[in-house]
Amino acid sequence: MRPSARPHAVEKLDPVWDRMRREAEEIAHREPVLGGFIFTAILNHSTFEKALVHRLAQRLGNADLSSDLVVQAFEDAIEEEPEIGVAARTDILATFERDPACHRYVDPLLYFKGYQAVQTHRMAHRLLHMGRSDFASYLQSRSSMISSVDINPAAKIGKGIMIDHGHDIVIGETSVVEDNVSILQGVTLGGTGKETGDRHPKIRHGVLIGAGAKILGNIEIGHCSRVAACSVVLHDVPPNRTVAGVPAKIVGYAGCEEPSRAMDHQVEDIANPPD
C-alpha cells in the first residue's frame, strides 16, 4: 500500500501557534516601535515551543545566568517532556477564555507574568526530576523575584491553569493543583507550621480560588468548588461547594458545573446545601 503523506501534514497543524503568529504580525504592523521585541519573542521562531523557551529565557536571564543557558536547559526539559508544550497551549486557551482583559492568544506569552510564572514552573519541575535540583531552585527564586509568583519546583500543576494578575502567589512544595483551576492574586497554598512531608493543599479540578484566599495544610478542596476572596481554609471542602470566611465555612453550592471557567465570585444568591 502506498504510504500517505497526510498524517505527517496533520502533525504540523498548530492552530494556537498559527493564530499567535498572525496576532504578532498585526502588533508589529500597528506598533512599529515594538517590532524588534515582537520578532525576538514570536516571529523569529518556527514553533510555539521555541518561542516559549526564548520568551521565558528573556525574562529570567540576568548577570548570574545568561538567557542562552536558560534556553539550553529549557530545550532539554521539553525534549524530556514534550507535554510541557501541550500544557502551555492549554493555559493560553484557559486565560483567553476566562480573563476578560486577555484579548488575543499571544497576550499571555508576551505580557502576563502569571502565565509566564506557571510555564517557568513547568520547566523547573521537569528539571528537578532530571536531577537538576539546584537549577530548578534557581528558577524558582528568579521567577519569584521578577513575577511575585513563588511555586516550589516539586509542586504538581495540571493544565488549563490561569493565574490572574500574577502577584503575591505562593504554592508550596507538596501542593497539587489539578486541571482547569483558576487562581487570583494574593493566594497562598501553604502549610500550617513546621510539619514535614506531605503538608500542602490538594486542589481538585475546576476549582476557583478568589483573591487573597489562604488554603493551609494537607487538605483537599473538592472538584468544582469555590473559595471566596480573603477566606482562610483549614479543613477539607467537599466537591461543588462554596466556602467563605475566616475560618472558612460552607456557605452554599458552587453555583455552576465548573467555577474556574465561569469566574463568578459572587457568594450571595446561592442556595445553601442540604443538611
- % residues in beta strands: 5-15%
Using DSSP, what is the number of strands? 15
What sequence of helices (H) and strands (E) makes up the elements? HHHHHHHHHEEEEEEEEEEEEEEEH
Radius of gyration: 20 Å
For the biggest sheet, the summary is: 6 strands, mixed
What topology, given as strand order, has the largest sheet? 3-6-9-12-14-15
The amount of helix comes to 40-55%
The mean pLDDT is 93
What does this structure look like?
This protein is of the alpha/beta class. The protein folds into two domains: 138 residues, serine acetyltransferase, domain 1; 108 residues, 3 Solenoid (UDP N-Acetylglucosamine Acyltransferase, domain 1). Helices cover 42% and strands 14% of the residues. It has a six-stranded mixed sheet with strand order 3-6-9-12-14-15. The chain has a five-stranded parallel sheet with strand order 1-4-7-10-13. A hairpin with a 4-residue loop joins strand 14 and strand 15.
Give a topology summary.
Elements: H1 6-11, H2 15-30, H3 35-43, H4 48-60, H5 67-80, H6 83-98, H7 106-111, H8 113-129, H9 133-147, E1 149-151, E2 156-157, E3 162-163, E4 169-171, E5 176-177, E6 182-183, E7 188-190, E8 202-203, E9 208-209, E10 214-216, E11 220-221, E12 226-227, E13 232-233, E14 241-244, E15 249-253, H10 259-262
Parallel strand pairs: 1-4, 2-5, 3-6, 4-7, 5-8, 6-9, 7-10, 8-11, 9-12, 10-13, 12-14
Antiparallel strand pairs: 14-15
